[in-house]
Amino acid sequence: MADFFTVLTKVGAAAVANATALGTSINLAEMALGDGGGVAMTPTAEMTALVREVYRADINNIAVEIESPSIMRVELIVPTTVGGWTAREVGVFDDTGKLFAVGNFPDTYKPQLSEGSARELKVVVLLEVTASGVVNLSVDPTIVLATSKYVDAAIAALVQQMAAMAATVQGSLTELTPEDIGAAPANHTHPPDTPAGTVVAIAGTDVPSSWLECNGASLSTTTYATLHAIIGTVFGSGTGTFKLPDLRGEFVRGWDHSRGVDSGRVFGSAQTDAFKSHSHSAAAVDTSHPANVNEGAGYGAKSGSTGAAGGTETRPRNVALMFIIKY
């Protein structure tokens, strides 16, 4: 007899005979690996369990060999995340947990990732069953694993197929202009550029391209013709020049534009700081003299003024950013 082989257990042989007689089927569900208790083992039909099981999982695939219909091929894939033991024995179990077949094979060490090496292990068991039709060939597709070699080969084949399809499509294409498909011309920008004259605040000190700091600078009306057409000479002008708004240190207020909140304002004009008109009331009594109805009017009353407090301007809380304008 060969050194390495697989046999049906008595339980497995009885299950096959019973299924053949009754016209039922056997469901093989799991495969397990064992280390033989640390030594080589010889499988026997009397076994009901592995000598020492180290790993068990659902069957990955089960099929009948095309060349030999009485031979069944049962596969197990052990992923790279499992290991740290030597496999010497293998068992096939039915859906009731009974050992259907058992086999042995040469010592095969399965490393684990923590050892600095990892690999998949694919175990294939060939079972000779006289009436292979009594064994159910279906497996749960949610637990089927593919080896990395199979995946790599499948991906390579798919890449070649896609490349061939792309070449076929490319050969049938005709170059179209934007106008052919009703699109905007090639020099069209979408979405459109920010319009000239737009003022925004940025949280940085470097002025981006196509923008200028709102610092009251004088610019050429020809060099910056687009911006000049928008803001004109509202913020000042000179010979062949116009000025930018100077927003350094300023709060920007919306133009009243006939609303009546800030009446009389000219667009682009500046305002100085101011308090809204209001009044205060105060009273003081001279307590150094007793009250006397015979004393003249105003006796005992005093006047005065409050002391100065505050800074050099009236302002709310604020954050300093840089205003820039698009040209």
Structure write-up:
- By secondary structure, the chain is of the alpha+beta class.
- Among the domains are: 6-146, no CATH class; 193-251 and 321-327, heat- and protease-stable fragment of the bacteriophage t4 short fibre, domain 3 (Alpha-Beta Complex).
- Helix content is 13%, strand content 25%.
- The protein contains three helices and 15 strands.
- The strands form four sheets. Strands 1, 2, 3, 6, 7 and 9 form a six-stranded mixed sheet that branches. The chain has a three-stranded antiparallel sheet with strand order 4-5-8, with no helix packed on it.
- A hairpin with a 4-residue loop joins strand 6 and strand 7 (99-110).
Counting DSSP E segments of at least 2 residues, the number of strands comes to 15
Quaternary assembly: single chain
By DSSP (H or I, 4+ residues per run), the number of helices equals: 3
Poorly predicted segments: none
The amount of helix comes to 10-25%
Proportion of beta-strand residues:
25-35%
Mean pLDDT: 83
Which descriptor suits the 3D outline? elongated
Largest sheet: 6 strands, mixed
Structural class: alpha+beta
Summarize the helix and strand pattern as letters: EHEEEEEEEEHEEEHEEE
**End-to-end separation:** 93 Å
Rg is 46 Å
